[in-house]
Design a protein that fits this description.
- About 25% of the residues lie in helices and about 25% in strands.
- The chain is α+β, with helices and mostly antiparallel strands.
- The strands form 8 sheets. Strands 13, 14, 15, 17, 18, 19, 21 and 22 form an 8-stranded antiparallel sheet that branches. Strands 8-9-7-10-11-12 form a 6-stranded mixed sheet, sandwiched between helices.
- Strand 14 and strand 15 form a beta hairpin.
- This protein promotes the GTP-dependent binding of aminoacyl-tRNA to the A-site of ribosomes during protein biosynthesis.
């Protein structure tokens, strides 16, 4: 037994903790065994072939039995002055070493030569360590201790992992906790970077609030270069996004960054007229449809044969003056009642623009239809009747639609308007009458927010073709030297088109074809672009469809961009999944859907104040829903926008306020700061528009 051999040679062994049995080791002749890794080396080698431990620094027991007990102390079978042990201990000082399970003290007899050699070797290693630490390596700070994939031989000897399972488990837990803390740090860095810490100093921003660890320090302490760490973080971010999906189900938003493709941006050299969406609005019987029909006929959009048919049908019903209006009012009900009920869409080309004409109804019963059509407008033509009494009726605050249409057009973001003073032949082309209309209506338009430089005044007569596409005769030209209506249209400026954002197209109307198995949607592209074969997401049904074909002015086209008014033919979707008031959008960037909104509103001339609990009708793009005012948050100063009163009991006429409304059904909506077209609303009650507003916050659906 090994204990008997130690006693025979003069050694005294003291067991500190508990007695264990040691395995008997057989050493081959002509070889020496390394006490570190227990490898049998050739006798001619001065260091271990496996771990590199020096042979001379190990204790040799004198055959005579003389050694000094104070020279060397072995702990767990390892020599304290071993070169490998000193190096490991210096490099991995952050490891918390536990006391070995056993501590055996060896007392050897005197051996002067061995004592001298041992002190020399120890002094050499101490000088080496002092030289190593005095250089640039003295500032090394190891925050996360280095660990082998498997325990090193030195760890096996010092902590006796080969004989203590409890120690092995504790060590494994300690290393696992270190690894977990490292992963937590990387996760915190990733979260901070995703939350928008941008700029040149973002890489050195503090990201671990508990421990005060910085990203740059963390990278250097772990031995990773900052640029490598950033690239790894980006790859982890992309992989996590691909696993969790692109769409946030809670808010309907996407975490991806949208990048438009090359074909979405129009080519400056492309020989194509820019599209201008022009809404025609005004009081009922002011001559809007007649003006539109006459203009289309003069520009060749209505053939002489068609015009002759309209004249014949109008005379048969005793309405000969409606012949040009019937070119757009095609339904039997519209012709019988003599009014426009829906928005009629027509196209013509001027010298500068491809114009989409949106003839809106003027009767107060069909203002919701007017809102649906006018939301697509880039500019507007406001038609007023110059005849005595008719102009005053249209401008009446109670029943006049001239006032309401002007307010609605301005609330839709239209800031350019052409005022056509129609039926000038009835007043014998009186300049005084024209100036009076201009003075009264101009004052009201300025109160709506229109600038004088953005308002063009054109006296005209649709029935007598005066000042529409050419210079008028002497009756009008004698005192008016401004542009004709067609030249005034060419003088309008196109609003900025946003091609860099994802696709958004509110659906104005749908056409269902049972025979072909497809659905056609009509509307104006607010942002982005589409082309044949593209995938689109229909909201709020969240169904994906394929674009089969595109049509512009009844002509097939391959690409449609922001600002274009097109018909989109879809396939691969059921008819009941597409409704007017929905939105076509990019599959990865869906529009938000909610029924709980915070609005900033401007109240118009109302007699009944708005209270908490008031029932209203909310219009947003082509959708309308019943709404309830659930909370009045504050009143605002109309000039500064600052809060003047919190939680008022009611809102009176001409006041600005912030309110919360809950809708009966959910609508596709965006905050005004994100999308102006999908962030403007109008509130109506009892057939009248009572307030205009903007969506300031989309709240959780109720």
């Amino acid at each position: 037994m090994l204990s008997t051999m130690l006693l025979d040679q003069g050694f005294v062994a003291t067991d500190i903790t508990h007695q264990t049995k040691a395995k008997q080791e057989v050493i081959r002749t002509g070889a020496w065994r390394c006490p570190i890794c227990t490898y049998d080396n050739e006798d001619s080698m001065s260091e271990c072939d496996i771990c590199g431990a020096l042979r001379n620094c190990l204790v040799r027991i004198s055959q005579t039995g003389d050694s000094t007990a104070d020279t060397f102390h072995a702990g767990g079978g390892r020599c304290k002055s071993s070169g490998a042990s000193v190096m490991v201990k210096s490099l991995f000082a952050s490891f918390r070493h536990r006391a070995p399970a056993k501590s055996v003290a060896f007392e050897a007899k005197n051996d002067a030569v061995l004592i001298e050699d041992a002190f020399i070797i120890r002094r050499n290693f101490q000088e080496f360590l002092r030289a190593f630490s005095s250089q640039k390596h003295q500032n090394i700070n190891i925050a996360a201790p280095f660990k082998f994939d498997s325990p090193s031989p030195d760890d096996l000897v010092s902590t006796r992992l080969h004989s203590s399972k409890l120690d092995s488990k504790a060590n494994f837990k300690r290393l696992s906790s270190l690894d977990m803390s490292t992963r937590e740090r990387e996760k915190n860095i990733l979260i901070e970077s995703e939350l928008g810490t941008e700029g040149p100093n973002s890489s050195s921003a503090s990201v671990a609030r508990d421990g005060g660890v910085k990203e740059r320090d963390f990278a250097s302490d772990c031995g990773i270069k900052p640029e490598i760490l950033v690239s790894r973080m980006r790859s982890v971010s992309l992989s996590s996004k691909s696993r969790t999906g692109n769409v946030n189900e809670e808010t309907g938003t996407s975490n991806l960054e949208y990048k438009p493709e090359a074909w979405m941006i129009p080519d400056q050299a492309e020989d194509r007229l820019s599209q201008l969406n022009l809404a025609i609005v005004g009081h009922v019987d002011s001559g809007k449809s007649t003006l539109s029909g006459r203009l289309l006929h003069l520009l060749g959009r209505i053939s002489q044969k068609e015009m002759h048919r309209h004249e014949k049908e109008a005379k048969q019903q005793g309405k000969g003056s409606f012949a040009y209006a019937w070119a757009l009012d095609e339904s039997a009900e519209e012709r019988e009642r003599g009014i426009t009920m829906t928005v009629a869409v027509a196209f013509f080309n001027s010298r500068k623009y491809h114009v989409v004409l949106l003839d809106s109804p003027g009767h107060r019963d069909f203002v919701p239809n007017m809102i649906s059509g006018a939301t697509q407008a880039d500019a507007a033509i406001l038609v007023v009747d110059a005849s005595m009494g008719s102009f005053e009726a249209g401008l009446d605050p109670i029943g006049g639609q001239t006032r309401e249409h002007a307010l609605l057009i301005r609330s839709f973001g239209v800031d350019q308007i052409i005022v056509v003073v129609n039926k000038m032949d009835v007043v014998e082309y009186s300049q005084e009458r024209f100036e009076m209309v201009k003075q009264k209506l101009g004052t009201f338009l300025r109160s709506c927010g229109f600038k004088d430089s953005s308002v063009l005044w054109v006296p005209a007569s649709s029935m007598e073709n005066q000042n529409l596409v050419a210079t008028p005769d002497e009756r009008l030209f004698s005192w008016f030297h401004g542009p004709c209506l067609l030249d005034a249209i060419d003088s309008l400026q196109l609003p900025a088109r946003d091609y860099s954002k994802p696709l958004l197209m509110p659906i104005c109307d749908i056409i269902k074809s049972q025979s072909q198995g497809q659905v056609s949607t009509c509307g104006k592209l607010v942002t982005g672009a589409i082309r044949t074969g593209s995938k689109v997401l229909i909201m709020p049904s969240r169904e994906v469809a394929t674009i089969r074909s595109l049509e512009r002015d009844s002509q097939a086209c391959k690409i449609a961009r922001s600002g274009d008014n097109v018909t989109v033919n879809l396939q691969g979707i059921e008819n009941n999944h597409v409704t007017a008031g929905g939105v076509l959008c990019h599959p990865d960037f869906p529009v938000r859907v909610s029924n709980h909104l915070e609005l900033k509103i401007l109240v118009l001339d109302i007699k009944i104040p708005i209270l908490s609990g008031s029932q209203l009708e909310l219009h947003i793009h082509h959708a309308k829903e019943a709404a309830t005012v659930v909370k009045i948050l504050s009143l605002l100063d109309p000039k500064t926008g600052k809060v003047t009163k919190k939680s008022p009991r009611c809102i009176l006429a001409k006041q600005n306020a912030v309110v919360e409304v809950v809708l009966q059904g959910s609508v596709c909506v965006e905050e005004y700061a994100e999308s102006r077209a999908l962030g403007r609303v109008s509130l109506r009650s009892s057939g009248r528009t009572v307030a205009l507003g903007l969506v300031t916050q989309i709240m959780k659906t109720q």
